[in-house]
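Format notes (please read before filing issues)

Several people have asked whether sequences and structure tokens are stored in separate files. They are not. Every record keeps both together, in the order shown below: the sequence lines, then the token lines. Line labels are part of the format and must not be stripped during preprocessing.
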Amino acid sequence: MTNEFVLEALTREFPDSVISSSEPYGMLTVEIKKDDIKKVIHYLKDSTLEFNFLTDICGIHYPETQDKEIGVIYHLHNMMANFRIRLKVFMTRENIEVDSIVDLYAGANWMERETYDFYGIKFKGHPDLRPILNMEDLGYHPMLKEYKLEDGTRTDKNDAMFGR
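Then the structure lines:
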């Protein structure tokens, strides 16, 4: 199995879904349209390509890129051929939702909850989408850096000690 073979199979099966592809450090990385990601992952799992192991799901935040500010990254592994692929989807801040793949990979349950908890990305169809590591009343998603960098309630800190 090669990067060219897998990319050709994806572009043949989903010609309008593949936005771009690259091979950083030799790993095939494909950007997919957000609405098609579940179909593509389902194909990769149940076709002869046999990507039967979901290694990871994580979020990413590019605040300076308005049309691709929030992203979800999927790492899949074909254990028989020892071949890995990275899939990326991007979205705007106003539409921060993507399809859940818990019905395809049971291990996605925890990963999607963690991504929701830290980035606020909603997974449509997830059976129990709620914070998993942070407190439920936290009020922000820490990886988006939407919180103050300093605690305004501290009384033991004098700015003069820090040259301010």
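For reference, the curators noted about this record: Strands lie at 18-22, 28-32, 53-61, 70-78, 83-91, 97-99, 122-124. The first strand starts at residue 18 and ends at 22.
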